[in-house]
Amino acid sequence: MASIEVGRVCVKTAGREAGEKCVIVELIDENFVEVVGGSVKNRRCNISHLEPLEETIEVSDDVKAVKKDLEAL
Hints:
Blueprint: E1 8-12, E2 21-27, E3 32-36, E4 43-46, E5 50-56, H1 63-72
Antiparallel strand pairs: 1-2, 1-5, 2-3, 3-4
């Protein structure tokens, strides 16, 4: 099982963006993380609404670069 960590690629399982890939860019607390993705807005997300995948991405302050790396997967 993949762990919840910065740079981990996940699939959202709930909400209007369900089924979309995203990347964890910040750990907020034990229940919430900040995610960003190609069609996922940069927002806070409950960890229970994410399905972590095996892939990871190097996360930087440049959101556009993170989105581009995610699309390359």
